[in-house]
TrEMBL record:
Pfam families: DUF1264. Belongs to the OBAP family. InterPro entries: OBAP-like. This is DUF1264 domain-containing protein. Residues 1-25 are annotated as: Disordered.
């Protein structure tokens, strides 16, 4: 089944609540509280970061959502995220994202790589933020995330009004710098006002984070200069090649 923007034909009956269902009873709360006291819940307790960013439906880039990632780090090259539609206590789990380093991404087959998106622009543009955490504390982490790739499947399209997780999962992509991939300014403004941040200022402060493109250009420049030196044609060029190093 392919993702689509068509709302499901049949929606569950009820009072319109999302999700549909009866309110919790005292008994339900006692069961949950007791289980929470007796069980370790180890996987959940490994969540170490909350990231707020934006995601775009790959089949329709005009549909964009604010996404809250709760991240567990399994090792230096692999993170896994439970993705919610907000950071409220009643937030709905809308999907899952896996994040790998560029070292792992480069080993994937070409067809598999098509399912993953780069976090380069997401970080350098200031869209990727750790709410309420000082920027300087996460500087190294931001530089690492900029060189990672994510695979995000959205299982609950609440933005189109789904009251339950219905239909096939939708593959999501990272915001882009051009065309329909540019995040809608009103979405960013709402997020910025909530957390009292300014995305434009974050973008400026992250301008020196080396992007994948910058690294490739630098590598090409070094290769080109080395090639010119080997051919001993430096005299042909009026500029001094050392400034490119």
């Amino acid at each position: 089944m392919a993702s689509s923007d068509k709302a499901p034909d049949v929606m569950p009956v009820g009072d319109g609540s999302v999700p549909p269902g009866k309110p919790m009873t005292v008994g339900d709360k006692v069961v949950d509280k007791s289980a929470g006291m007796l069980q370790t819940l180890k996987p959940i307790k490994q969540i170490s970061q909350h990231v707020c960013t934006f995601s775009v439906y790959s089949h329709d880039m005009s549909r964009q959502i604010e996404a809250h990632h709760y991240i567990t780090r399994l090792n230096q090259d692999f993170l896994q995220c439970a993705v919610y539609d907000s950071d409220d206590s009643s937030a709905r789990l809308i999907g899952v994202e896996y994040i790998v380093s560029d070292r792992i991404f480069d080993t994937l087959p070409t067809d598999e790589q098509k399912l993953w998106h780069s976090h380069d622009h997401e970080v350098t543009s200031g869209l990727w933020v750790n709410p309420r955490v000082p920027e300087m504390l996460h500087r190294t982490e931001l530089e690492n995330i900029a060189h990672t790739y994510g695979k995000f499947w959205c299982t609950w399209q609440v933005d189109r009004g789904d009251r339950l997780p219905l239909g096939a999962p939708a593959l999501m992509m990272s915001p882009q710098v051009v065309n329909m991939g540019v995040v809608q300014p009103e979405l960013v403004l709402v997020r910025d006002n909530k957390y009292k941040i300014k995305t434009d200022e974050l973008r400026k402060s992250r301008a020196d984070i080396p992007s994948k493109l910058m690294m490739l250009c630098h590598a090409f420049t070094l290769y080109f200069c080395s090639w010119v030196r080997r051919l001993e044609v430096r005299a042909v060029f009026p500029f001094h090649l050392d400034k490119f190093y």
